[in-house]
Known about the structure:
- This protein is α+β, with helices and mostly antiparallel strands.
- It has one domain (9-146).
- The chain is built from two helices and six strands.
- The chain has helices at 8-59, 119-122; strands spanning 88-89, 98-105, 110-116, 126-130, 135-138, 145-146.
- The protein has a six-stranded antiparallel β-sheet.
- The longest helix has 52 residues, at 8-59.
- The chain starts with 7 loop residues before the first helix and ends with a strand.
Amino acid sequence: MKISGFSLVELVVTMAILSILALIAYPSYLSQVTSTRRADAMGVLLQDAAYLERLYTLNGCYNAGPDGICGTSDDNSNQNYPTLPYTQSPASGNTVYYNITFTDITASTYSLKADPSTTPQAKDGSLTLTNTGAQGWAKNPSGNTNSWH
Length: 149
């Protein structure tokens, strides 16, 4: 009678090979997930920038204030920033990886910032976008900024 199956040595060797593959693949997977979440935040920043450009086209300034008129006393108050259509990334869903905020807004300029809000993204740094299209990525919390690409 012949017994078929795997020996213990064959199973141990197989498990060792799978463990080595997992040790190599998992960090790469996490890096790709982080990169994908960052790319989504870039897209949300660009959508908010398009919204602000539409406001500028309609009103003649980025910070028209509650009265909708440029050049009045309510324009430069921090409480009167326009409401962004997207304040988080991803734009919908329960898990937020980036919070989108203004860092500055005047009649002719604005600056948006996406700050990481969760532990896996926190090491990835923040993203910025200005009215001139200048893109910044502080790859780490020290503040050294590079372009997105």
